[in-house]
Structure formats: structure tokens, C-alpha cells
Amino acid sequence: MKMSNLNYFDWKGRTLIAVLLFVLISLNASAGSGLKFKDQKFKIIQFTDLHYVHSDKHKAQNDSTIELMRLLIEEEKPDLVVFTGDVVVSSPALEGWDRVTQPMTELQVPFAVNFGNHDTETDVTTSEILKHLSKNPMSVTENQVKGISGQGNCSLPIQSSNGKQDEMVVYLFDSKAYSDHGKVSGYGWVKHDQIDWYRKTSQAYAKKNKRVVPALAFFHIPLPEYAIVREQEATLGNNTERVHAPTMNTGLLSAFVEMNDVKGVFVGHDHNNDFIGGIFGVALAYGRKTGYVPAYSEILDRGARVIELTEGADFFETYIRTRSDKLLEYTFPY
């Protein structure tokens, strides 16, 4: 059947856009993030839900949050810090962001940022926040491909100790704030264009490294499947709060399972949960709330989740750190 000129050029244009998108993703997958295993080890600290409020009333709590972050960084010596949302929740937000990133800036530790639902409720947009953070040499978050939903969707390859291949990949997703669809209420979700970007990026890493590259994923709002893991007998940690997931399930976990690379997912959002458990070969984990400013009745000591990676291993290790304790040690095989 002969195409009309209009349909032909429309098809040709769409094909060209798809090819260019894949080329851009492949180039980004090859560019590197500067992250690298050292002596076959790589450590990540997840800080979440700081709820930094810029006011004299909360100064002591904010100071305690910053001091706790600095203490844990000095003691754990991470190679990367990841904030999983609800970091600065009041105005002037950029001043708050400068304050909460100060420990990483001064201690020269790379950091990455997910945005949470409350990060959108200040005097600047998440796009403006990301642009501001890009001026900090320790920030590794970016919009890897333009034109997809959200801010800060990117992949961060961690190179092997010898620098010859990508040993692991860290994916950052913007899980949005609240539903923007008139027929759906509740929290936001990772959308299909983000999932398409992830699939193409995963394929690009596999092609470049001639193997599926194991990965971890970080975002703010938990997947609906967290409610299943919460009830499993083998799940470890605190689960005193219900899972506040979006009502829309767009199949992100399914994509992780099908691509067979993401082995652990790490979120925040629910301040009284810090559990971890497995489903379909993927660990679903909460961080530990880091910020001392409470948003509601909160029962857990403030802290962070630590994730330890070993080069060439088929597992990762993780635990919760508070000011004085190391808790809930967990090894997840894959």
C-alpha cells in the first residue's frame, strides 16, 4: 500500500526522532558520572524526608538534621549520598538547599537528588532547584534526556575499580507530587515516558558493556507493590505506617523485572517505615527518616539507610544507621 506524502513524512520524522533519542541515551550511558568502585567497594547513604523548614522556630531541629548528616558521612565515608525527596519544604527554598547540601560540599562527597511531593510546594520549581544545584560541583543529578516527565531523571554509572566497565548503575526517577489526572486522586507516579527512557537506557548500558549491568533505583513515593512486601513474613524492619503509594500502577516494577537489572528500589515518603523485603527478585526498601522536623506523629529515631556494594558480587548489603546504632542489617542476593 502506498503511503501518502503526509503519512510518509510523519512516519519518517517519528523514526528519526526515535533514532536520535536512542543515540542521545547511548551517549549519556557512555559519558559516565565520575563514580567508581575503590578497592572493590562502593557505599551509598540514603538521606530522606529532611523536611527542612526555614524558620527560627525550627532552627534547633534543622541544626540537628545537618549535624546528623555530617556525623554519618564522617563515620560511614560514603562514595555517594542520595536524597530521596521532601528535602526542603518551605521558602526561601534555595537557601535551604544550600544549607542541607553543605555537608557534602564541605566533605567533598558526590550527591544526587530525588524530589518529593513537598519539594514542589515552595517559592521555586523543581526545575529551578535542579538548575541551582547544578552549580555545585558535588551534584551529579541532571535531566539526562529532555522532554520526559519530571525533573532529575538520570542514570549514574559506577565504574569498576580498573575503570574498564560499568559495574553498577544508579537510576533516579521523579515520582512527582500529586495526580494531575482528573479521574485519579492521590499521589503522583512514574509515567510511561520515564519508563520508556529507563528501558532504552538499560539496553544502552547492556550493549556498551556486553552484559546486563546490575542497578539500583531511587525515588520518593513507594510503588504499590510495597504494600505486598509489607505483609511478607521475611520482610525486615519497621512497618507501622500504611504504604502511601499512588493509586495508579504504571508497571515500573514490571519493567525492572523484565530488564533484569534493577536489584533494589529505595524510597522515602512514609516516615514510620524503614522495612526491606524482596519480590520477583527485587528488594523494595524504605530509607530511615533523617530530618528532625516532624510532619506528623513520628516514632523512629532519625537516621539514614546505608547500602554497601561489592564489585563482582551477586548481592548487596544494607543497614540503618542512627546517631549511635547500626540496625536491621540485611543482605539481598540476586
UniProtKB/TrEMBL annotation:
Gene3D superfamilies the record matches: 3.60.21.10
Pfam families: Metallophos
Source species of the chain: Sunxiuqinia elliptica
GO cellular component, as recorded: cytoplasm
InterPro entries for the chain: Calcineurin-like_PHP, Metallo-depent_PP-like, PAP14/16/28/29
Calcineurin-like phosphoesterase domain mapped to chain residues: 42-272
PANTHER family, A to Z: METALLOPHOSPHOESTERASE DOMAIN-CONTAINING PROTEIN, PHOSPHATASE DCR2-RELATED-RELATED
GO molecular function: hydrolase activity, acting on ester bonds
Protein name: Calcineurin-like phosphoesterase
